[in-house]
Design a protein that fits this description.
By secondary structure, this protein is mainly alpha-helical. It contains 22 helices and 6 strands. Strand 2 and strand 3 form a beta hairpin. Helix 3 crosses helix 5. The termini are far apart.
């Protein structure tokens, strides 16, 4: 997807959206169609995603088929699924001609198997083979990201030969900053940067000036690892190879930007137990169904915390101030744990946190938690003792806070790795599990200690 535009452009785009929607609201259909035609495909996609379903479908009908096909690649999955449901097989075949192989493969992943097979059978043999090569890999690995449209050259060829070959092609694939160099077996050898090709002597061979420092990308490499390699090596494109080191495609920076954006959305939406591709204006029942699961899980954990509180009902009845101070203990533990959890999840995403350094990170977080716990516990203990005229109460809440913050730091450090072992996304489940731990431990220590102290 395109990079974020400057603020001035965003304001202009918002004005364009308003003009389109005003024309549509006034039943000026041709005016709305004309205004829509003045927007590029990514902007049309953003407009569709920012309107309710009824208006969205009506605006879609105002687009010509060629524009519809191009807009598909920029839509989030939930919104795109709406339009795929109403598109005929013939139009989907036309979309395959308009879109890059990797983008159309994403669309085929969303279609029912029967429809997908029907579309594939309708495609020319060469196009079908390219799509099947991409579809054979999951969409979260390099093979699923790659485009099979590549330009390869041999090491023995002179630059003059290469230039003549490129002229016969008339057009290069988008984001072509280098040609892929392969041997006679189509095995990856290196890259020939376009800048070197244009500036070097035409009699020089490819072998003499090609770049062999840039490694190829294995087809089974995860999309996150691909994004990290592009970032580390400032790549614009890279060759993708299979297990035999044979070039089967290439990945370009626009695909990597999409991965980075999706990972960021997953991290933000996952903390609320929501899908990053969820439609902002999804139908009520669909939104209800999607959120009910995590709300139910959260309710179960809330019952667990309530059960712990109920164990000390008698103590709370005797010392009413405990009920006033309980939220402080749970809240401080929750915040401390969330800070550590967020740091660790981010570190894992960036490749900073591994088994080899997890123990060091745990020790560091526990020490930081102890320092913060002691400082804040002293403040809260002094305030509680002064307000309720009870030194014992101050001691109880101070100890409970320190213990809960230490537990929160340990849990926040270890939970992501544990959840990954269980094949659960820590960005989604980590917050719920951590909150349960800090609530249960916080209430148990606070009320249990109070029970002993006031016995």
């Amino acid at each position: 997807m395109p990079d974020r535009q400057p603020a001035s452009v965003e304001v202009n785009e918002e004005e364009q959206f308003r003009v389109v929607l005003d024309a549509f609201a006034e039943d000026a259909v041709e005016e709305a169609r004309f205004r829509l035609a003045g927007l590029d495909e990514p902007a049309i996609a953003r407009l569709l995603e920012s309107t309710p379903p009824t208006t969205r479908r009506a605006l879609w009908e105002l687009l010509d088929e060629e524009t519809e096909n191009l807009v598909l690649q920029y839509l989030h999955e939930d919104v795109r699924a709406e339009f795929l449901d109403i598109m005929a097989t013939e139009q989907l075949v036309q979309a395959a001609d308009a879109l890059d192989t990797d983008d159309f493969a994403d669309i085929l992943h969303q279609l029912p198997e029967e429809t997908s097979d029907e579309v594939l059978k309708s495609l020319p043999t060469v196009d079908r083979a390219r799509l099947e090569a991409v579809l054979s890999y999951s969409d979260d690995c390099a093979g699923g990201l790659m485009n099979t449209d590549t330009v390869t050259v041999r090491p023995r060829h002179t630059l003059e030969v290469v230039l003549r070959y490129l002229r016969t092609r008339r057009q290069l694939p988008e984001s072509t900053d280098a040609l892929i160099v392969v041997n006679s077996k189509d095995e990856y050898v290196g890259l020939l940067p376009i800048t070197r090709l244009l500036t070097a002597d035409a009699s020089v061979t490819v072998r003499e000036i090609m770049n062999t420092d840039i490694e190829s990308i294995p087809a089974d490499m995860t999309d996150t690892e691909v994004a990290r390699r592009f970032s580390d090596q400032d790549l614009i494109s890279a060759a993708v190879v299979n297990g035999e080191n044979i070039v089967i495609g290439r990945i370009t920076i626009d695909d990597v930007v999409d991965v980075i954006i999706e990972d960021a959305q997953d991290a933000v939406m996952g903390q609320a137990g929501m899908d990053a591709d969820e439609d902002t204006f999804a139908p009520i029942f669909k939104a209800f169904r999607g959120r009910a699961l995590w709300l139910t899980i959260n309710l179960a954990t809330a019952f667990l915390a309530s059960a712990v509180i109920n164990l000390f009902e008698g103590t709370i009845a005797k010392v009413v101030a405990l009920a006033v101070l309980m939220p402080i203990v749970a809240s401080m533990g929750g915040i401390a744990g969330t800070q550590t959890l967020t740091l660790v999840v981010r570190g894992m995403a960036l490749g900073h946190v591994r088994r080899s350094n997890l123990l060091y990170l745990l020790n560091r977080e526990v020490v930081v938690a102890a320092m913060n716990g002691l400082l804040l516990a002293a403040v809260v203990a002094t305030a509680a003792a002064a307000v309720f005229q009870d030194v014992t109460l101050g001691i109880v809440i101070a100890v409970a806070m320190v213990v809960n913050i230490l537990v929160a730091a340990a849990a926040g450090s270890l939970l992501p790795s544990l959840l990954q072992l269980l094949r659960i996304d820590p960005a989604i489940a980590g917050g719920v599990v951590l909150t349960t731990i800090t609530d249960v431990i916080g209430f148990f220590v606070f009320l249990g200690l109070a029970t002993v102290m006031y016995a």
